[in-house]
Known about the structure:
With 942 residues, the chain is an alpha/beta fold. The chain has 26 helices and 38 strands. The strands form eight sheets. A nine-stranded mixed β-sheet has the order 18-17-16-19-20-28-27-26-23. An eight-stranded mixed β-sheet has the order 29-31-34-33-32-35-36-30. Strands 5-4-3-6-7-37 form a six-stranded mixed β-sheet, with helices on both faces. The chain is elongated, with a radius of gyration of 47 Å.
Amino acid sequence: MNPTEQVVYEFARATTLDGWWIWAAVLLVVVAAFSACVYFYRRDVEELRRPVRWTLIGLRLVAVAAIVFLFFDLVRRTERRVTRPSEVIVLVDTSQSMSLPSGDSIEAPSRMERARELVADSNLVETFAEEHRTSVYVFDQATEPRLVQTRFDQEVNASEEASSLETESGEPTSPFLLFGGFCLIVFAIASVVSFALGIFRIGSGRGSNKRASVGAAESSASASAIGWALLVAAITMVCGIVSIGGVYAVHTDRTLTELMGMETQATTDDETNAEGDEEVSGETDEDMPMKAVDWDQIIVAGGAQSRIGDALRSVLVDHDPTTLAGVIVITDGQNNGGATLTSALALARRGEVPVYPVGMGSSQPPTNIRVVDLEVPRRVYPGDKFVVASVLQATGTSEMEVDVELVDALDNEGAADEGSANGSTTLPGGVVLETQRITLQPDATLTDLRFEIEPQTVGRRRLAVRVVVPAEDRNDTDNMQTARYEVVARKLRVLAIAGGPTREYRFVRNLLYRDESVQLDVWLQTGMQGMSQDADELLSAFPATAEDLFEYDAVVMFDPDWSAIDASSLDLLDRFLTEQAGGLVLVAGPVFHPKISGDRSDGRSNQIGAFFPVNLATRGPLLGGGRQGGSDSWPLEFTPEASQAEFLWVADSPEESFGTWQEYGGVYDYVGVKSAKPGAKVYAYFSDPTTEVSGSLPIFLASQFYGAGRVFFQGSGEVWRLRAAGDRYFDSYYTKLIRWVSEGRLLRDSNRGVLLVDSDRAMVGQNITLRAVLVDDQFQPLTEPSVTAKLLAPDGKIKDLKLTPAADSPRGGTYTGNFVATKSGSYEIQLAVGDALDEQLLRQSVQVRLPTSELERPRRADDELENLAAATRGEYVRVDDSVAMQTVQSKLNEAIVPQSQVTLLAGTPDAAFTLRRNAILMWLIASVLTFEWITRRLHRLA
């Protein structure tokens, strides 16, 4: 917004006279006043000489004219002309689909590279910035686009012009002032001459009668000279007063002595410095020097979705449509997330804002087959069959029949990573275990593929799913995906503790007892001596020593009676979690759970409450919230975190799993908790809307890290109702859950610590959190300020990850860090602990997949982009391989017309000018009337 000032002089009275008859009356009065003055003065001064008559009549007419001028009230206003510049918005799509080739050939540059070429290399921004305020945004899966740069070159030119105007406006002299001074000098001389001649004439008139005849002629000549001198004096006096008074009234920032050059404006160095400081402190962000933008780092394809509708709507809301000349959208048109284009189009049409889509990519789908995803268990047992699930996708012009191979090899990390980095489809040392022939549809439909294997060799291994592609396949880098897994011989040791023989406890006990990979010990707190239980060992109390407790990998507690667990046992449980990376599952119930915080005098309450990932209610067992004996079942309301929790995938796919939960996983009751703790993850809420408190539903499923261990909370023991859909769903939930909470314990590579990730499966663009719990060589919590891990990416690149102490850990030695998964494939994190003589390596792996929504339609969406342009009266620009970006830039520059808006802001009358104007008019009226009186007295008029 560039404001310019303009000084305007106007007669304020004239703006209030409305109607021709008012103007006619005013004009009649003015003419009558002037006519009366001339008429009466002509009669009064008829006997005087002509110059004197003219002088007296002129002086009176000037006085009347000054009064008329004062009546019309000349005022000065400073009008501000505010120019709001035209705007152009450039939106750049940075979703994953923009990483695809821009043409039919795989050797063609990616769509992202072509977009970067248009923005950075074709001078698109620089060209538009000459006439428009140009803003560049990038958008992908976020609900709002991210502003990268705003540029407007005219702001620099405007500031330079303003500076030059300020310099020119500092001239101290005025020609009118010099002319007025000259006139006053002439007035003084003429006045002195007329006064001298008048004195001479009076002296001559008082002489003897002898000289009367001689002096008559001289007296006549003297009277004529006096008249002309008076006329000159009157004219120069009026001209001088008007000239000097006009300059004095206009330059209200200077005194009269400063205007006449008798005094200079005083500006001290301190004032100058203060003004300079104010100018510096008043700089806006737009006045600051523009920083160079590294477009190679900004325009990068990484988003899991492309929210074109949300991005358009956001910029249309944030910018004024009256000055928005156009919105350029650089995209392939795949709007697969957020709001549809309908609302954004309605907003653009209402504001009459044209949209100019720039279509990237090929209008024909490329022929390509890719392995989208590979799912392998992280830990399996010898002889246990497990399923390797893979997802394939194909694009092209016709269906394709291909062979898909399952390859197994030892985990030779260096060779495997090098092969992946080079885009190789070989796994060093790999053996083809099975081959399946499948038919793929060319419309990017996702095809599931399953292999079943039975491992026999213990150790770390690597699996790969590889496609034997036809010759016309355009991309060799996505024909294989690999994943690591480990075959272990040790059984999972679980301790189950129950306050009573609830259904949940009994079903879980039977499940784990039948599982040959699990060794189950149980402590039924209400059990009698000698009663039978399906378990490997029956306990009658909590393990008394650290050696006994630390033999377990997970502890599952079903509404336990905490009063039967003393403080020393709680300390052992704390150490089991924080030091040994053990797992803890807390299944709440209506009998003993409300008593945890019921007795505030019991010091163990805080220690027990610390284990939970939720804040427990503190209002006693009767008023602690929750519900018992509900009459209706309510399905769980899952959060976005649940979609990444594989223990909730009770069926073959996430969609089928959550559908089963919705239909059969309803519960009646829950225990009362207040809120989730910082750092905890909530997976599900109890969905009955009548139980909502302060805008939040009761938490039913949640988890947290407790030191190196995981703790899981379940709001009631009613998941057994899932068995209505089939036993396998219930068995899958608890089997996966117990293995998940004990994962840190099972994956320990060293007695010096454990390395954990919050999710071992992720999508491209997701933030992965790491957690390491470490001890020194004396097995005390590590006190280093930071530790560094190595991140091995799927392309073979190695990156350092800095882990810093965790703020939410109850003990020292816990470190956290994170990284963003930017490529699909298997990531491995390695953390070396110990010294060079006794170095031990902690490892974790994360399997990352591409979002299918981004790549299921690789063809450029010409129809959608054409409709977008037509609906907003814009223009669609296709970018094919043969189109130069300079041509695209020129076409856009010609199509988008500047749309600046100029607003005129009228200022208030200048009070200083009005005061000086009145003073000058009074000075003029007083001067002419005084001069008239003196002249009349000299000529003996009444």
